[in-house]
Specification:
The chain contains eight helices and ten strands. By secondary structure, the protein is α+β, with helices and mostly antiparallel strands. The longest helix is centred in the N-terminal third of the chain and has 48 residues. A hairpin with a 2-residue loop joins β2 and β3. The chain has a six-stranded mixed beta barrel.
């Protein structure tokens, strides 16, 4: 009888160990998968935010009449640590037989490094963007597509044309490549170019910056800060944070994370029920 009792106790201990191992594997899978997804989200988010701003303040389809006042008002918020003006426009780059569409961003080289990581160029210097010299900094993928490097010339075609007796003629301007940037995000590396804000205003015929980029102490608070700025700044301004600019992507990732959490929690629950049922039967 004592031998059978010892054998039975050993069997129960074995079953208990197997069941506990199942729970441990389920919890480990839950932790590992959620950690990987959180790391992936952070990596992609950081790459996006090397190009995008935490918060953008723009006019409704027009230039800001007095961007310094808007920037000064925004800096009064305790979460805002830096501000820089910009001009956004679209154009085409032509190099021999190669044509590429691009998003042109006119920046202030002195203020841009405070709000953007791509201003720290791996090739060239952002300070080489001098007003009147029509220099350009290209994304690495865009430069490779155009087969250009430092010192090469590339033609920019602006959609805003000049009216002549022969019709509307697009404006062309030769730019010299003075730098390359690599954000690690193909969407931006293949379609973004930086020029001096004064050259952008002249080329695209805008009377001033089209917006102001803001950097915050804590980017996670950007939605709340954007809401507060929209209420405190003067009317007629559009305030957007980084989560709204990529709402679809982040919403999809959040939904996927929730579903993975539910699925892995069910795995842990199944292992727990298996442990209880096995102990009851034994």
């Amino acid at each position: 009888a004592g031998r059978r009792a010892r054998r039975r106790n050993a069997f129960i201990s074995f079953i208990s160990a197997i069941s506990m191992a199942g729970i441990a594997l389920g919890v480990a899978a839950l932790i590992v998968v959620l950690s990987v997804m959180n790391g992936f989200t952070k990596e992609v988010r950081d790459r996006m935010l090397s190009v995008l701003s935490h918060v953008e303040v723009t006019g409704y389809g027009e230039a800001l009449a007095d961007w310094q006042r808007v920037a000064a008002q925004a800096r009064q918020h305790p979460e805002v640590v830096a501000a820089a003006p910009f001009v956004n426009a679209q154009a085409m780059f032509v190099r021999e037989d190669t044509v590429r569409g691009a998003l042109i961003r006119g920046i202030d080289p002195a203020a841009e490094p405070a709000v953007s990581d791509i201003a720290r160029l791996p090739v060239g210097r952002i300070t080489d963007l001098v007003p009147g010299e029509f220099n350009v900094v290209l994304g690495g993928e865009l430069a490779r597509a155009l087969a250009v490097g430092l010192g090469d010339r590339v033609t920019l075609i602006a959609p805003q044309g000049n009216v002549t007796p022969a019709g509307v003629v697009p404006r062309l301007r030769q730019f010299r490549v003075v730098g390359l940037f690599e954000s690690g995000h193909f969407e931006y590396d293949s379609a973004l170019a930086l020029i001096h804000i004064a050259d952008a205003e002249k080329l695209f015929r805008v009377e001033g910056p089209t917006g102001v980029r803001l950097k915050l102490k804590d980017m996670q608070r950007a939605p709340l800060v954007a809401q507060q700025l929209a209420q405190s700044l003067e009317p007629g301004l559009l305030v957007r944070d980084w989560s709204r600019q990529n709402r679809t992507w982040f919403a999809a990732v959040q939904t996927e994370k929730r579903m993975m959490w539910i699925i892995l929690t069910l795995i842990v629950a199944v292992a727990a029920f298996n442990l209880v049922s096995t102990l009851v039967m034994t």
